[in-house]
Each structure stands twice: as structure tokens, then as C-alpha cells.
Amino acid sequence: MPETFFGWVVYLLQQYGSVLLKGAVVTLLLAVVGTFIGCIIGLIVGVIQTIPLEDNDSKVKRTLVRCLQRLLDAYVEVFRGTPMIVQAMVVYYGAMSLFDIDMSPLFAGFLVVSINTGAYMAETVRGGIESVDPGQKEAAIAIGMDHIQTMRCVILPQALRNVMPQLGNNLIINIKDTSVLNVISVTELYFASKSAAGVYYKYFEIFFITCVIYFIMTFTASRLLRWLESKMDGPKDYQLVTYDPMMDPCGDIPLPTKKPKGRY
Q1: Are 114 and 37 in contact (CB under 8 A)?
Q2: Residue 52 near residue 145 (C-beta atoms within 8 A)
Q3: pLDDT digits (tens, 9 = 90+) for 168-199
Q4: How far apart are CA 95 and CA 159, in angstroms?
């Protein structure tokens, strides 16, 4: 048996490396899929929460929209105001007790991460929509766009860029918070680490390895999302086109991309 700390680390990696790797894959799968579905939920909820009500709208429409918005407000407050570990217990065991639904722990994990992320993303999307300059909406209405066209073509593209940092933050949080799903026996990274640590009672060594794995996953996700943000921003050295077709009916003259060599 090893006698040093790093000796135990190497030994545990040799013995349980595949188990920890499978747990890390489950953790990433839960985080990525749950964040993706949660973003869709948050986008729908955020858009509904920002539906404007005009004075000339019918009473039926105003009543339905307000009731739907109040229900969605309750959903957001409940899932933002309770811990994910409690939500996992309520969803998994509550579905079995109240509705006789025997769902698998992994499916319950996907469900909990998705609806929890959706509650946070709903407020993020709502804030992103409200952060867009009101003049953008007024200009869209002035050229004849309805609310759906305005949201799809003008407001949401700008709002989604504004919420990208928070989306990445939610993904990183979900990578770490999936560890609470071990209470319903989801075999993610923390569950696998706890099982391996109980064999030799080397908790410090095995959770040191776990810590490193979590850091690698979150750091990689953070860098990938920053790269995606930079791609969404577009090039920084773009050149404004000064061509006006009304001034020059003969056609556009391409601008030189490189400075010509030699003297004039």
C-alpha cells in the first residue's frame, strides 16, 4: 500500500479512475442538458412575463395574460427560493408518493436541474429584454411590426447577447450543484467519489482528485463560453461601408483590404 499522499492519489486513480470518469460524464450530461432545457424554459417564461398589455386590449386577453404571468411568477419564486437538494427530494419521492410515478433517479435529476435553471433564467431573460433600449421597440412598431415580430427580430437577438454571461454562470453552477443529486442516488461525480472513498477511508485523497476534476470541467466550460461570447461580438477591426447606391448608380467599388506596396 502507498505511504505518501501523492502515492495514494496515484493508486486511487489507478483503481477508481474509470469510476470517477463515468461520474464526471454523468455530471457534465446533467449540467449541459439541464442548462439547455432550462434556458428554453427561461426564454419562454421571460417572454411571457414581458408581454405588454394595452388599454385597448380585450378584457379576456388581459385576464388570461395576467393570470398566466402570476402563475409563472409563483413558479420562479418557489424554485429560486428553495434549495436544489430539497427540490430533488420533493420531485423524486413526491412523484412516487402522490402520483405513483416511479421515475429513474437520472430522469429526476434532469427534471430538477432543468426546472431550477429555468426559474433563474426566466429572471435573467426578463432583465435582458428590459435592458434593450425602448427606442428599439418604438422603431419596430413605427415600421409596422407586431409584438411577436418585434421580439423575434429586434429585441431577443440583443437580449440574448446580454444574458450570455449569466447563461455561462448557470452552466458552471450546475456542474457543481449536480453533486446534491446524490441524495436520490444519481451516480454523478460526487456519488462516485464518496463510494470510492469508503473503501480505503482515504477521503482527503479521493476528494482532492474530485476537486481537480470539477475545476477542470468548470474552467473549460468558462473558457468555451468566453470564446462563444467573443464570436457573437463579431470582429473588432470591421470597416464601415461608405458606399451609397443613390450617389453612385454604376455599382460598388470594393475597398482595398491591404495597403499597396511601392510609391505613387
Answers
A1: yes
A2: no
A3: 889 999 999 999 999 998 989 999 999 888 88
A4: 36
Q: What is the pLDDT of residues 190-245, one digit of tens each?
A: 999 998 888 888 889 999 999 999 999 999 999 988 888 777 766 666 555 555 55
For the chain, which residues make up each domain, given as ranges? 16-192+206-229
Return the CATH class of domain 16-192+206-229: mainly alpha
- pLDDT tens for 51-93 read 877 777 788 888 898 999 899 999 999 999 999 999 999 999 9
For residues 10-20, one letter each, b for 16 or more C-beta atoms within 10 angstroms of the residue's C-beta and e for the rest, the string is eebeeebeebb
DSSP state of 231: H
- Name which of 200, 174, 139, 182 is nearest 23 in CA terms: 182
Q: What is the spatial distance between Cα 15 and Cα 12, in angstroms, rounded to a whole number?
A: 5
- According to DSSP, residue 182 is labeled G
